[in-house]
Amino acid sequence: MLTAPINKILPYSVVDGPGNRVAIFVQKCNIHCAYCHNPETQNLCSGCGACVEGCPAGALKMEQGRVVWDEKLCCGCDRCIKVCPNHASPKVTPMTAQQVFAKVCESIPFIRGITVSGGECGLYPEFLMELFRLAHTKGLSCLMDSNGTIDLSRYPELMEICDGVMLDVKSWKEETFRQLTGSGNEVVKKNLKYLADSEKLTEVRIVCLPGMVDAEDCILGISRTLSGEQIRRLPLKLIRFRHFGVKGALENHPSPDLAYMQGLEALARAQGFEKILIL
Amino acid sequence: MSNAVYDIITSTHLNYHQKLNNLCHEAENTLNVLELPEKFKYFYEYGALCDMNEGNAPYRPRYVMVDFEKFVRQGSKFLRIDPPKNLDELLWALEVLYTYIPSITTKPVYLGNIDLLIDPFLEGMTDEEILPRLERFLGFCDRVIANAYSHANIGPKATRAGRLLLQLEAKLQLEVPNLSLKYDPDITPDDFAEQAILCSLKCGNPAICNHKAHKDTYSFDYGISSCYNILPLRGGAYTLSRLVLPRLAKMAKSVDDFMDNLLPEACQALGEYMNARVSFLVEKSGFFQSDFLAQEGLVERERFVGMYGIAGLCDCVNLLLADKGQRYGNSKEADDLADRIMTYVQNFVANFPAKYSEIAGGHFLLHAQAGLATDEGVTSGVRIVVGDEPANLLDHLRHSARFHRFFPTGCSDIFPFDSTAERNPAALLDIVKGAFQIGDKYCAFYGADGDMVRITGYLVKKSDLEKYDRGEVVLQDNVINGSSNYKLNRLQDRKVQSV
Ligand code: SF4
Ligand code: SF4
């Protein structure tokens, strides 16, 4: 059976797309953003065992070179995540689409859809197809929350049944993107256009951090890439960088002030964006 | 008695109207005109049956649900008011009528479906002309009525008046009127419901009432009064008396003793007491014979009902199962016992003959009573005690649906939310839709960080509570009740829903 490593399933979330949704977080990402606020979702566990000893609840064990997590014993202290040298988590469960769907069903009738986030959900196209097909049988809308670095036009079948993608446009200049994430962003730009043209672009987000992120260029770049009508209808979220959960160089970096954010909002408005939200 | 009167008169903590009300209450209680059943007196001593301090000699119904639409059509001879022809006349007429509507609080507890009353008068007016007028009208409710049990309804249709009222509510931050939206997903458009939910996160109002679940409660339209009483229009509630279940549980030797002996005896005694009360009100008090509201057909005696209340189901079950450590809201055994208790009470009420209760087929109707200022260890109605709320809000709502089903005349939950929720009122609306679909009847939200807090079902400002607690005199009557209730029920510790 096809499975995906699942980090977490929230039975309801108001911050993962339109309306109330079940949010599913897959494990593993193909890039490594310096400002990632859940870096423990970036990699699969290597089985190094460093987290096992410190678990105060005895919820972690080594078995045949792999760490095994006992959810019932776990007290949720997240100590394992803090000590993991590998940007991973031992609290990950491989689940089939059927199993995830069963969890989703527990939130019916309180939700209008599901959003798969991560990690990078684009790493699991076949799993997503299966899950979305199941969710559609209950009339639930299915969104992907993606970093955009996987060429989605290569998965036409998935895009056919995916109701929309919430896309991160992390920065516009190639070298800025590379510094921030460790990879290039040509594919992100391609996805931006592809998704907008196929009416699958649910929202675009920019995490704003002056010095690290060229948010101004992002706004200008997006507006050059898309048509005026597409821009007008596209919800744009300008998210202030916050250091919670961040590991590494930006661990204690301050958030940009409101005046800076309002400047960005004004710039976006001048480019024709009408649905702008500062978070 | 004279000591109590002296204390009221010399108080520096009550305003003039509050003194007057308290003095009336003392005067009424010099009489002993009700024929109290012996068993009622017995359980009353233990606090297991409660008369809600309604007074010894009822001279007006507890809640009066005036048919305001009729009033607008016909005016009032007694008040010398002609049917209003424009917005100014309408609002003035309503304000005059409000001051003549009696209730247990001395203030009107039901102010009408105000959006539907106002909307027809808005034609040809600009928002700039309407808003200051509505602002003064709401100000009248807040400053003159000044009692947060006074309840206005809006919906289920979206109207221009409804939208303007919500816009003002969010701006003015008033605790009076208490406001509810009658919500039906088939009638109420999403954007209107979302505006209402966002408004409630900003100022506590409106609460959301499941219109579909309530609209056929009576053969006649309903209104919502006070802390969520679903009552027939052009009628109301004679009385609300209650079983205080945890105090009854304290008298029990065992679960069986509770179920087989105490509960049946207490139910019977409460029913008899209520009949005595209703009989005096109808036959002796003269209200239905002489009050202009009855004479002019703005209320009809046949549309009044007695509300048979229960409170503290949670604490009752927790006490009965204390040795097993099973707790209501968190254990199947506890919830099943609660269901058994409610099923008994429901059957009892459905069979007990209530006097003068035509609108309810000759019976009383069950109400999940939300609490008195002095209640300690008595959680509102069938709510889960603060501190025991399930971690998953959806589980909480499922639990509520299971117990709301017993109550035709009002049952509700209150959920404070953190500020994240304001970003996405559509998500909260999805939750409401789901909750109502599975049978939840009523819910109220408020922003946990704001000044406004919902006590049992009414709103007060935290800043007013602090003022009153410092010994200052306050305008709003409910601050006095709210002050003790907030502390006794540890409302500051309610689980804040983060979403
Ligand atoms: S969060 Fe991690 S460290 Fe803490 S109890 Fe659970 S497994 Fe152990
Ligand atoms: S979660 Fe991290 S620390 Fe624990 S075994 Fe896996 S890689 Fe090592």
What does the model show?
The complex is a heterodimer of chains A (279) and B (499). With 279 residues, chain A is α/β, with parallel strands linked by helices. In chain A, 30% of the residues lie in helices and 23% in strands. Chain A has nine helices and eleven strands. In chain A, the strands form two sheets. Chain A has a nine-stranded mixed β-sheet with strand order 5-1-2-6-7-8-9-10-11. Chain A has a two-stranded antiparallel sheet with strand order 3-4. In chain A, helix 2 packs parallel to helix 3 (125-137). Chain A starts with a strand and ends with a strand. Chain B has 499 residues and is of the alpha/beta class. Chain B has helices at 2-10, 16-28, 38-45, 68-74, 87-98, 114-118, 127-145, 160-172, 190-203, 211-214, 245-250, 255-284, 287-290, 292-295, 313-320, 332-351, 393-404, 425-437, 462-469, 478-488; strands spanning 49-50, 63-65, 110-113, 151-154, 178-183, 207-210, 222-225, 229-232, 235-244, 304-311, 365-368, 413-417, 442-447, 452-454, 459-461. Chain B has a six-stranded mixed β-sheet. In chain B, strands 1, 2, 9, 10 and 11 form a five-stranded mixed β-sheet that branches. In chain B, strand 4 (151-154), helix 8 (160-172) and strand 5 form a beta-alpha-beta unit. Classes of the chains: A alpha/beta (279), B alpha/beta (499). The complex binds iron/sulfur cluster (2 copies). One iron/sulfur cluster is lined by residues 55-57, 59-60, 69, 74-80, 91 of chain A.
Most extensive interface, chain pair and sizes: A-B, 18 and 20 residues
Rounded to the nearest angstrom, the radius of gyration of chain B is: 22 Å
Count of helical regions of chain B = 20
Share in helix of chain B: 40-55%
Structural class call of chain B reads alpha/beta
CATH homologous superfamily descriptor of the largest domain in chain A: Aldolase class I
CATH topology name of the largest domain in chain A, in short, is TIM Barrel
CATH class descriptor of the largest domain in chain A: Alpha Beta
The ligands bound in this entry are: iron/sulfur cluster
**What's the SSE pattern of chain A?**
EEEEHEHEHEHEHHEHHEHE
- Report how far apart the termini of chain B are: 52 Å
List low-pLDDT spans of chain B: none
CATH architecture group name of the largest domain in chain A: Alpha-Beta Barrel
What kind of sheet is the major sheet of chain A? 9 strands, mixed
Q: How many discrete domains of chain A?
A: 2
Domain module tally of chain B? 3
- Percentage beta strand of chain A: 15-25%
Helix content estimate of chain A: 25-40%
Structural class given helices, strands, pairing of chain A?
Answer: alpha/beta
